[in-house]
Specification:
Length: 68
């Protein structure tokens, strides 16, 4: 199973990774807000991650790391 890590502090909540994920397991958090005032991206279901790295490639701020 692949593992992704999102640096929520640096995320600007643009949602590009959410659109890029073919498994639709990323979402912008409704509860969390980071120090910049953005709702960061979070993982809904890590079990379904296929490690395709689309999210990491799409993120303009390079805040997602994919390990596989
Ligand atoms: S690596 Fe692929 S499947 Fe996993 S969260 Fe990122 S875009 Fe989705
Ligand atoms: S693409 Fe990057 S900056 Fe945009 S919501 Fe996703 S993790 Fe945050």
């Amino acid at each position: 199973m692949a593992k992704i890590t999102i640096n929520e502090t640096l995320c600007k909540g643009c949602g590009l990774c959410v659109s890029a994920c073919p498994k639709q397991i990323l979402a912008l958090s409704k509860e969390k807000m980071n120090s910049k005032g953005y709702h960061p991206a979070t993982i809904i279901d890590m079990e379904k991650c296929i490690g395709c790295t689309s999210c990491a490639i799409m993120c303009p701020d390079v805040v997602i790391t994919v390990e596989r």
